[in-house]
């Protein structure tokens, strides 16, 4: 138990569906992240939020839309996804966002399958 | 950018000490070195972090030579449950270089009975 929870743990959706992934951290951290991990590929950073403000967006397609209503919650809204978006989506948090020595605490991930 | 290079995979027998080396030739003065462990279908988990010389905790040791261009994660007496992917990250302290988020391909360690 890392103090970061994600729901749902598994999700199957069609290409025309709209769904949301939720992440919650109970660590009092100020920064939250979304990562994507496809099979046999490295983790890819998608978004970084610091104090509820987006500070990094790594050229992610607009069909992925993040939302950070407060420092404890992070959402990833999904719409019109493609089969190649099937992956493990990981949420993480850290005390600060832009300091290289910060330890990131990861949630268990959401396994997404797009049909 | 201080990206990292690690062996893609390693095998070890149970009970042996495992050393995984990471190269980071372009490491900057303010960079820290952090290692994470990831089991299948789980998020990475912090193992250890260091800046120079040697750091030890209850899980592992981290050796960093004086030039800091490489680092070695040492896992004492591994067990089957240590089978995982191990990532070495180098993080810039002050600016948003993104290196602290670059996990790379990691080293897949397989512990054999």
Write the layout of secondary structure elements.
The complex is a heterodimer of chains A (115) and B (113).
Chain A: E1 4-7, E2 10-13, E3 18-25, E4 31-37, E5 44-50, E6 53-57, E7 64-70, E8 73-79, E9 87-94, E10 105-106, E11 110-114
Chain B: E1 9-13, E2 18-23, E3 32-38, E4 45-50, E5 53-56, E6 61-64, E7 70-75, E8 84-91, E9 107-112
Parallel strand pairs in B: 1-9
Antiparallel strand pairs in B: 2-7, 3-4, 3-8, 5-6, 6-7, 8-9
- Major β-sheet of chain B, in short? 5 strands, mixed
SS-derived structural category of chain B: mainly beta
> What is the count of DSSP helices of chain A, taking H or I runs of 4+ residues?
0
**Biggest beta-sheet profile of chain A:** 7 strands, mixed
**Helicity level of chain B, as a percent range?**
under 10%
Helix content of chain A: under 10%
What does the overall shape of chain B look like? globular
Rg calculated over all Cα atoms of chain B: 13 Å
Rounded radius of gyration of chain A (Å): 13 Å
The total of beta strands of chain A comes to 11
Order of helices and strands of chain B: EEEEEEEEE
Described by the principal axes of the CA atoms, the overall outline of chain A is: globular
By DSSP, the count of extended strands of chain B is 9
What's the rounded overall pLDDT mean of chain A?
A: 90
Side by side, the strands of the main sheet of chain B go 1-9-8-3-4
- Assembly annotation: heterodimer
In short:
Chain A has strands spanning 4-7, 10-13, 18-25, 31-37, 44-50, 53-57, 64-70, 73-79, 87-94, 105-106, 110-114. Chain A is mainly β.
Describe the 3D structure.
The complex is a heterodimer of chains A (115) and B (113). With 115 residues, chain A is mostly beta strands. Chain A is built from no helices and eleven strands. Chain A has strands spanning 4-7, 10-13, 18-25, 31-37, 44-50, 53-57, 64-70, 73-79, 87-94, 105-106, 110-114. In chain A, the strands form two sheets. In chain A, strands 2, 4, 5, 6, 9, 10 and 11 form a seven-stranded mixed sheet that branches. A four-stranded antiparallel sheet of chain A has the order 1-3-8-7, with no helix packed on it. In chain A, a hairpin with a 2-residue loop joins strand 5 and strand 6. The radius of gyration of chain A is 13 Å and the shape is globular. Chain B has 113 residues and is an all-beta fold. Chain B has no helices and nine strands. Chain B has strands at residues 9-13, 18-23, 32-38, 45-50, 53-56, 61-64, 70-75, 84-91, 107-112. Chain B has a five-stranded mixed sheet with strand order 1-9-8-3-4, with no helix packed on it. Chain B has a four-stranded antiparallel sheet with strand order 2-7-6-5, with no helix packed on it. The radius of gyration of chain B is 13 Å and the shape is globular. The mean pLDDT of chain B is 89. Chain A binds chain B through residues 2, 4, 33, 42-43, 45, 48, 55-56, 58, 88, 90-92, 98-109, 111, and chain B through 30-32, 34, 36, 41-46, 49, 90-106.
